[in-house]
Write a structure and sequence with these properties.
Elements (H helix, E strand, L loop, with lengths): L5 E11 L4 E6 L5 H5 L2 E5 L5 E12 L2 E6 L5 H4 L6 E5 L13 H4 L3 E4 L4 E10 L4 E7 L2 E6 L5 E5 L4 E4 L9
Amino acid sequence: MQSDSLILMGKVAATHGIKGQLRIVAYSGLSESFLSAGSFFLRDSSGRTQQHDVSAISVHGKKLLVTLKGFSNINQVLAFVGNEVLLYRDQLPEPEEDEYYWYDLVGMNVVTTDNRVLGVLESIIETGSNDVYVVASAGKEYLIPALSDVVVSVDTVARIMTVTPVEGLFDL
């Protein structure tokens, strides 16, 4: 498999205890993908990526506690703190209808139903009640709520998101 099919899923936030467990923050909440993955990749700040098999994984509050095979002591895993956690795209379950992975949305062109080009979806903010899409173009930034009455369609093949121009939303 090629490294370009790796998807950034989280980050190693810290170690946990003295027996070599890692505390991982999942970027898209507590993803079932982590819980079912038998292995994942860790990428350090230099870009070096290594695959590791998972020995045990459990939910701990809003984080995941992971034990990697072959690591049983805190000193063996300290270097992993700060590493990015990646999975192959095919390790992820298919999203439900009208659900999308963030990595499929970021980079999309965003237009309104009246064909006004707003820009490119640069990032997504988790707010608790709904996500907010950050769309930027030519020095302007739009914050678009990820609500079904605002987001009309998402075309992952053409990489275009169409939104309803709600009154006042795009006035800057």
